[in-house]
Amino acid sequence: MPRGRLVRPSRRAFFPAIIAVLAAWGLTETAAWPIKTALYPRVIGIPLLVLAVAETVLSLRGKEAAGGGEAMDVSFSDEVPAGVARRRTVSIVAWMVGFYLAISLIGFPRAIPLFVFAYLRGQAKEAWTISLLLPAVAWLGFYLLFVRLLHLPFGEGLLWQSLFR
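^ thats the sequence. predicted structure below, dont judge the formating
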């Protein structure tokens, strides 16, 4: 194959191309934002776009990964019964959906300690001392970094807005 010539697109190029499009879309959405607000999405989006475009180009050119070995594939363990794996998966998805709903309803700053506390008491079955101390530390770290240091605005949440207008 001649050097630099494009070959028939492989399925390997599809995923990084989608990631590149999403990163470019995210960067265009932040173009009109103030620099303080757009800083985080741009810091993540620019390297993501560059790496995704590079991976897409390499995949389209048919370049193999360095090292010549096969790419690592996902392998499922036979050690965990299917029912247990299914319950764990549902539990993880439920925690993620719950965190999203908490953020939407009461806002990010209030959802963090609530989520950490609920997880430590409900899922991890931790002692009360740890379950009260770690959410406070999580909230303090979040507050100091994102609110005080970076001055990022966070929405109040739908429920919070409707109750305390």
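The helical segments are 14-29, 35-61, 82-106, 108-123, 128-149, 158-163.
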